[in-house]
From TrEMBL:
Organism taxonomic ancestry: Archaea, Methanobacteriati, Methanobacteriota, Stenosarchaea group, Halobacteria
Keyword Oxidoreductase: no
Protein family according to the UniProt entry: Belongs to the TCP-1 chaperonin family.
Entry protein name: Chaperonin GroEL, HSP60 family
Family matches, as CDD domains: cpn60
Length: 568
């Protein structure tokens, strides 16, 4: 549909309103628009609610081609659900931002966002203006970020125990649960190995999945694992103290750009031509030898003749190395990536104590170990089935995220609903100082945050009211680290228990959940080019899009999705 058909000019011409809007487009305004968007947002939050916390359940998602994903990870669920409603998508973005910024806390962020919308609905019904609400929510969010910063606990980069607790907390309730102590150690080792001061680039951690054997047999390889074999059988299997060349080029004779025709008039000429090619290949290998190369990783191809010469020289060479792997090799061995073999010099080479071809996970792979600066590591994840390894990988990714973020920020918070309870308490006090109608919004914000501990309790089969009452009374008496032990139902000191999360998980969740809720609340007009579809109503395109009737049709899809959340 042409964009300009969307132009609305509700001009008054005399008494005749003139609306320039395409026939297929649909418009919902005022309270209808607000409540449609709120319902959509809440439905999204509802769909992931049951997965929250250590006792949260998993979801099985089946796409149109029959692929199955079993997961507990909020952002994965929302991405796989293929949500179409625009307001619902704003909530999905909350999860995506959370994933990008911290890697964990996606479910919590979405659940809080949904609850902010729910609380707002009540206030809107009491005729509090959406703008007032938005202002109150923003004020509350700012204050909340200050409060969590105040109660955050410092953690230093060499506090391995706390880092392992953080790594383990992020994996609680996921497929990785039963091996989480072992995996937490690997995660902390991996992140520490690639950390450069307080900067961590998790791209330097390669996660390789292997189906077979148990999750707790997963291991960390200091160095890089390349899923390739050496290019020629006469090359060595193992090279000790290797000078490593990383080449973004081919060891082949370059074809001429223009299709040249070579007319050979006598056999000598042909021989000369072939000799010349061979000489060129020989020269490339000689260049490598002169620089002192023991192992060569080549991103492009290696000519048969060159392979033969390399093998003669005792060089282990690998071809068609992925450029992401080449980068990792360069970083870990200290090599410089060469784009032209003839330029290679001794200081372009990196160093590895050992380069070997081994059978890893059922295939021949090249393992580069004992590297000069282990700025690159490989986490070899094992698990009984593909679905298991995939879910372990997602848990590990959350875990790598939180440990990196902690190294960067040096601040953590207790988990188990402790910060949410503390925030609710302090925000209610803060509300008194706000005054006006915004005060009600700040109070609503405080109530909304308690959805965290409430949901943890519900998912653990505990009484949410009792749990909240116990939590509040502990926090009232000054125990800001008191949280809910989802296994026993007791309120305990989460810091002592080792249930800790990075500060950024909470600040980011507060920020994006508030932004999304505020954005949705401020909308009083939805103009859609065509039918506003919810999930699963793809085939009703040709139904007449009848004014307000169309919108609830869209909502029907969303309602169905919420129902799916409840059913799983
Ligand atoms: P998210 O996608 O938000 O990270 P999770 O399913 O990972 O969702 O649940 C995170 C919540 O579970 C956090 O509030 C965290 O504090 C809590 N949690 C994690 N481990 C425990 C535990 N052992 N006891 C109580 N709560 C826990
Ligand atoms: Mg988590």
């Amino acid at each position: 549909m042409a964009i300009n058909s969307l132009l609305i000019m509700a001009q008054q011409m005399g008494n005749q309103p003139m609306i320039v809007l395409s026939e297929d487009s649909q418009r919902t305004s005022g309270k209808d628009a607000q409540s449609m968007n709120i319902t959509a947002g809440k439905a999204v939050a509802e769909s992931v609610r049951t997965t929250l916390g250590p006792k949260g359940m998993d979801k099985m998602l089946v796409d149109s081609t029959g692929n199955v994903v079993v997961t507990n990870d909020g952002v994965t669920i929302l991405k796989e659900m293929d949500i179409e409603h625009p307001a619902a998508n704003m909530i999905v973005e909350v999860a995506e931002t959370q994933e990008d910024e911290v890697g964990d806390g996606t479910t919590s962020a979405v659940v809080v966002s949904g609850e902010l919308l729910k609380e707002a609905e009540d206030l809107l019904d009491q005729d509090i203006h959406a703008t007032t609400l938005a202002q109150g929510y923003r004020q509350a969010a700012e204050k909340a970020k200050e409060i969590v910063k105040d109660i955050a606990i410092d953690v230093s980069a060499d506090d391995t125990e706390t880092l392992e607790s953080i790594a383990a907390t992020a994996m609680t309730g996921k497929g990785a649960e039963n091996a989480k102590d072992h995996l937490a150690k690997l995660v902390v080792q991996a992140v520490s190995a690639v950390a450069d001061g307080d900067e961590v680039d998790t791209d330097n951690i390669k996660v390789e999945k292997v189906v077979g054997s148990a999750v707790d047999e997963s291991e960390l390889i200091e160095g890089v694992l390349i899923d390739k074999d050496r290019v020629h059988e006469n090359m060595p299997y193992f090279v000790e103290d290797a000078n490593v060349a990383v080449i973004d080029d081919a060891l082949e004779v370059k074809e001429t750009e223009i299709d040249a025709e070579v007319n050979v008039t006598d056999p000598d000429q042909l021989q000369e031509f072939l000799d010349q090619e061979e000489a060129q290949l020989r020269e490339m290998v000689d260049d490598l030898v002169e620089a002192g190369t023991d192992v060569a990783f080549v991103e492009d191809g290696i000519d048969d003749m060159a392979q033969h010469y390399l093998a003669q020289e005792g060089i282990l060479a690998v071809r068609r190395v992925k450029s992401s792997d080449a980068e990792k090799l360069a970083r870990s061995t200290g090599a410089r990536v060469i784009s032209n073999v003839s330029d290679i010099e001794a200081d372009d080479l990196g160093f590895a104590g050992s380069v070997s071809q081994q059978e890893v996970a059922g295939s021949q792979q090249i393992l580069v170990e004992d590297v000069e600066d282990a700025k690159s590591v490989t986490l070899l994840l094992r698990g009984g089935t593909e679905h298991v390894v995939d879910e372990v990988e997602r848990a590990i990714e959350d875990s790598l995220g939180v440990v990196s973020v902690t190294l960067e920020d040096g601040k953590v918070l207790p988990g188990g609903g402790a910060p949410e309870t503390e925030l609710a308490l302090e925000l209610r006090q803060f509300a008194d100082s706000v005054g006006g109608r915004e005060q009600l919004a700040v109070e609503a914000f405080a109530d909304a945050l308690e959805v965290g501990p409430r949901t943890l309790a519900e998912n653990a089969g505990l009484d949410p009211i009792d749990s909240l009452v116990n939590l509040r009374s502990e926090h009232d008496s000054g125990n800001s680290t008191a949280g809910l032990d989802a296994y026993t139902g007791d309120v305990i000191d989460m810091e002592a228990e080792g249930v800790v999360e990075p500060l950024r998980v909470k600040t980011q969740a507060i920020e994006s959940a508030t932004e999304a809720a505020v954005m949705i609340l401020r909308i009083d007009d939805v103009i859609a080019a065509g039918d506003l579809k919810g999930g699963g109503t793809d085939d009703d395109d040709d139904e007449p899009a009848g004014g307000p009737g169309g919108a609830p049709g869209g909502m029907g899809g969303m309602g169905g999705m919420g129902g799916m959340g409840g059913a799983m």
